[in-house]
Every structure is written in structure tokens, then in C-alpha cells.
Amino acid sequence: MNHSLSHTIKTSTSTVLLAAAALGLLGLSGCASKVQYGDATGVETVNTDFGSSDLQMIAEKMVDDLLSSPAMRDIAPNGERPILFIESIKNKTVEHIDTESITDTISTKLLNSRRFRFVDMTRMDAVQKQLDYQKNSGLVDETKAAQMGRQLGAKFMLYGNLASITKSAGSTKDIYYKFTLKLSNIESGIVEFQSEKEIRKTRTKSLFGG
């Protein structure tokens, strides 16, 4: 092999190796990820699925409607703070939606309004165990133990449904959500308040699949 051919091969090999290294670095940089904080209350438009913006809009609308409703005169006369409990929101959509987050946000806003009080029915078993422990373990001073039968009962029940209708035509997908919230008097069974929030989301795919 002459010197010129050997030099050409070495040069070509070096060029290929440099190109491969450059591609490797480019691939690594392409795989790198960046995490940053965003506005938790900002509008979320990643896709048409139920998201944080929908939850916030529903909670705000329901709380505003309830607090401004003429029914408040009957629900909380003379500035009373009626006791509520929330029944689990029923998810009637085809999506997996954490409806407990909706109820948590609504109850938080209502509690912070100082117009209502709540009993947490989801923790009754834990409360019962603690009361039994204080009464029967022999480890708690009887004069300072919580007394059985002193809990206040809820007067109203807050409950609701989340439903959806999805339609697709060609590259367009349309999804309609409807959230319904009701507040009923436990003793009489009368529905004292009801409100709805509707949300429509449409997505159209581009011709290039974007």
C-alpha cells in the first residue's frame, strides 16, 4: 500500500469517527430533559382529556354559585355555619378521573369561605378506633379522653356527577363535559341547591400529524 493511499484511508477513518462522535453527542443532547416550575393556575391545553384547568373552573363555579345562591338564606339562616358532608363525586365519563380531587378543591374553598363546616366521613373508621383506644386501652387519662357520642351530625349532603360526551370526525375530536353539584337536606331529603358547569374542548390534528 502506497503512502498516499494509506494517508487517504486514515483521513477517511478519522472523519467517520469524528462524525460518529458528533452524532453520539447530538443524540445525548437530544435525550436530555429539562424540568421547570409552571403556573399551577395556568390554562392547561396538552390534550382534550380532563385536566387541572377543568378542575379549577368547576370548583370555582360551584363555590361561587352556592355562596351567591338565594338558597343560602334557608341553608344558613342568621349567619349560621351549617355542617356538611360530601358524598363521593360519581365519574360517569370513560376516562379515569380522580374525582376526589374535585371534592377536595370544592370543600377547601367552601371551608375557607367560613360559611360552612364539614365532617369527614372517609375517616370515621380511624376516628372510631381512636375513641375506642382512649376509652378501653387504660393508657389515657379518663378525665381528658374524648367522649363518645359528642360528635355533631351533618345537616346537609353535597354530591354530584361528572359526565362526558365524545365525538370524532376525521381529524377533529370534540369532548363535552358536564359537572352537576347538588346540596340536599339530610332530614327532609329536599334538594336545596343545584348547579352545573359545562366545558367543551376541541382538538384538530394537522395534516402532518402534529
Mean pLDDT: 81
Q: Please tell me how large the radius of gyration is.
A: 30 Å
Q: Which CATH architecture of the largest domain?
A: 3-Layer(aba) Sandwich
CATH topology of the largest domain: Rossmann fold
Structural domain count: 2
Low-confidence stretches: none
Helix content: 25-40%
Task: Supply the helix-strand structural class.
Answer: alpha/beta
Q: State the end-to-end distance.
A: 54 Å
Annotation field: number of helices: 5
What fraction of the residues are assigned to beta strands by DSSP?
A: 15-25%
CATH superfamily of the largest domain: ABC-type transport auxiliary lipoprotein component
Protein name: Penicillin-binding protein activator LpoB
GO molecular function: enzyme regulator activity
Pfam families: LpoB (PF13036)
GO cellular component, one term: periplasmic side of cell outer membrane
Keywords summarizing the entry:
210 residues; alpha/beta; Rossmann fold; 2 domains; 36% helix; extended
